[in-house]
Design goal:
alpha/beta, Rossmann fold, 2 domains, 4-stranded parallel β-sheet, 15 helices, 37% helix, globular
Length: 416
């Protein structure tokens, strides 16, 4: 069953419920008509707070379609990352409406392929490349990253002729924290077994973030919560109690790369976590509020984002390590952790008044609650390289410890 085959209520019940891309494009066009500039991004390390503080709208430019790869290979090496080739292909064929709407672009030094792409497009629009440290444990890296963020602030101010004040940046810090808390609380419902939410709906909820203020998002999430409670009461869920629970990681997943998630589903698994940089992990981070230097607070929080382009990320990011340690797919079965029924950051699961999703789901091999199912079944780990690559059948599962291992044969690769 897919999200759109669900017999129960849609979680997002508006005219865009089957067309979330249309919601996003309409939002962008409206903002442009109101005079707000659009800034294209290629990485989650670009601080959204700075972009919004200058009055601009941040949008992702990463692409995941095979359609433009051939055009890109006329310039780029054929063995380059398919995400880069897809993104560059859309630009070189002038077929990306979001790039066309963007008035400036922010890049980053996550890999040599992206750096080459930024060289090739630097003449098209104002472009700023952030120097992302790939060894965060090295002494002095925090000050180096702060300098990089300061340079981005200067680029935005110069490009749009607007000053970013400390007070304005503090407003955006609080806005980010409010939105992250709302969406992070929604993720707690995925601890139900089987989950009442489909992976397509996880992306749909995440997609509400860039097109909503925190107050608009709060109202939307209240409606989602009510419909989710109705779905739970009706017994609507995805997968079966015996379905392997799979965490998908890797680079941004969308477009053609969604075949990875569909194959997992067709093979009998259920996707309960989207750890890719276009997914869930960034919402666990909170930016410190009320500091004397909000720019430093933004820089420190941004550098905490866990990503494979930064070495030793778990050791560098205790906040992420603690966050993962309390999630069902990463938790140890030997006790500890937060009380049953309690969600991330101590919130009731789902923010629900009628249900606490972690409290009453059943375990296939004994135990109960958010940690009980771990005693018999660990979450699977699948990775995606975007639109190409391969691994042997069955690879990608954490410790190969699923009660019913699923063999996956698709163009995908393990990212970690």
């Amino acid at each position: 069953m897919t999200a759109f085959d669900t017999p129960g209520p849609y979680l997002i019940n508006d005219r865009y419920r089957t067309n979330p891309v249309g919601r996003f494009l309409d939002f962008l066009i409206k903002k442009r008509e109101e005079g707000a500039p659009v800034v294209g991004l290629y990485c989650g390390y670009a601080p959204l707070e700075l972009v919004r503080a200058v009055g601009a709208v941040p949008v992702s430019l990463c692409a995941s379609s095979q359609r433009t790869v051939a055009a890109a290979e006329a310039v780029l090496p054929a063995n380059l990352c398919p995400l880069i080739k897809s993104s560059f292909g859309f630009i070189s064929t002038d077929s990306c409406p979001i790039f066309a709407l963007s008035q400036a672009v922010i890049g980053e030094t996550t890999c040599d392929g992206k750096k080459k792409m930024f060289e090739l497009i630097s003449h098209l629009k104002p472009l700023h490349v952030m120097d992302l440290p790939n060894m965060p444990g090295v002494r002095g890296v925090e000050e180096r990253w702060l300098t990089t963020v300061e340079k981005l602030k200067e680029f935005l101010e110069e490009t749009f002729k607007r000053r970013i004040t400390a007070a304005r940046l503090e407003e955006e810090i609080r806005e980010t924290n409010r939105k992250n808390s709302l969406i992070d609380g929604f993720f707690d419902c995925l601890t139900r077994h089987p989950p009442p939410v489909h992976w397509e709906e996880i992306y749909d909820v995440i997609a509400l973030d860039p097109v909503s203020t925190s107050e608009e998002l709060r109202m939307l999430m209240a409606g989602i919560d009510e419909r989710l409670e109705d779905r739970i009461e009706a017994g609507i869920c995805f997968g079966a109690p015996s379905s392997p629970r799979v965490l998908v990681t890797g680079c941004p997943i969308g477009g053609d790369a969604l075949k990875v998630l569909k194959i997992i589903e067709e093979a009998g698994g259920v996707v309960v976590a989207l750890e890719a940089c276009s997914g869930m992990k960034g919402y666990s981070i909170r930016i410190e509020e009320g500091t004397a230097n909000p720019l430093r607070a933004v820089a420190e929080a941004t550098l905490m984002i866990p990503c494979s382009c930064n070495q030793d990320r778990a050791a560098f990011c205790p906040g992420w390590q603690a966050h993962c340690g309390n999630l069902p797919w990463a938790a140890d079965s030997g006790g500890g952790g937060r009380p049953q029924g309690e969600g991330m950051h101590g919130l009731p699961r789902c923010g629900s008044r009628r249900h606490q999703c972690g409290r009453d789901f059943h375990s296939p091999r004994g135990g109960s609650g958010a940690r009980g199912w771990q005693s018999g079944q660990r979450a699977g780990l699948a990775g995606s390289s975007g639109v190409a690559g391969s691994v042997p059948q069955g690879a990608g599962y954490a410790d190969q410890a699923l009660s019913s291992p699923v063999a996956l044969t698709a163009p995908w690769c393990v990212s970690e």
